Amino acid sequence: MFELLLAELTRAGIQFRRYLFEAVGGIVISTAVFYGLFLSVSYIAGPGLAFGDRLDAIIVGYVLWTLVLFIMANISGTLQREAQTGTLEQLFISPFSASQVFLARAVADLLLQAGLIAAILVIIMALTGRWLAFPLTLWLPLLTVLLGAYGLSFAIGSLALMVKRIQQVLGIFQFALLFLLSVPTEEWTGNLRLLGDLLPMSPGAGLLRNVMARQQALDLQQLSIALVNGGVYFAIGLVLFRWAERYTKRHGNLSDY
Q: Which ranges carry the ABC-2 type transporter transmembrane domain (predicted)?
């Protein structure tokens, strides 16, 4: 598995160098969209607007949304590109299982994408003048968000494996992701709080807002809920992907486009 990850890191590095302009363009577009929204809200609300720590929480949610969008599009996008170029079957006859190949590719791409996400976050903080906290404890809730994101990515990838083109579905799903990562479910109470704990990635996103924006101590009980949430969605995504792989092979349309 380490050999596979190393090969994928090499591939990702080569692509990153050859298409550096696209990466820079992604940084510019992502920061411009957020800053445009920020200026629009500030203009509408007038000079008396006071965001408080809400702006910090919005920044956390937006950056998480940008990161999860990349993860969501990674596996399904790879499947569609490989189907178009006619190399999809090669991935499925490698010595590694298909889920291992796509997971290693996703992790390798994420390691490079993390630098771009960090650049977007720094630029947004500089433009808005709001500087978040970065305690070491933030890695634990971030891990739960990544688990949930990869689980959903494998679930969407299973759909792409069967029908090959799902751009419209991904477009609609982006708005649902914005809701999941931006709405402060950690402030909900009663049955709504229970619903928030069941939504994918929502508990981990709430913890990140508390730790980075509100500078609160890490809630271990809520962290346990977030870990279970991320682990369950990751397992569901893998199960769906493996089922879709068997279904596609059984019907003989793995390389169809």
A: 58-238
pTM of the model: 0.85
Q: Which three-class secondary structure state does DSSP give residue 216?
A: coil
Distance separating alpha carbons of residues 168 and 245, to the nearest angstrom: 22
Are 166 and 156 a contacting pair, CB within 8 Å? yes
What is the CA angle 255-256-257, rounded to 5? Answer: 120
Residue 181, amino acid: L
Contact 195, 178 (CB under 8 A): no
Whose CA is closest to 87, among 11, 6, 169? 11
In the chain, domain spans: 2-250
> Helix, strand, coil: what percent of the chain each, to 5?
80, 0, 20
Tell me the two tokens of residue 177: 């992701």
CA trace torsion 120, 122, 123, 125 (10° rounding):
120
Give the Cα separation of 211 and 255 in Å (integer): 46
The tokens of 198 are what?
């069941």
* Token couple for 142: 């971030």
Residue-wise pLDDT for 45-90, tens only, equals 555 555 556 778 888 888 888 888 888 777 777 777 777 766 777 7
Taking residue 96's Cβ as centre, other Cβ atoms within 10 Å add up to: 15
Question: How many residues make up the chain in this entry?
Answer: 257
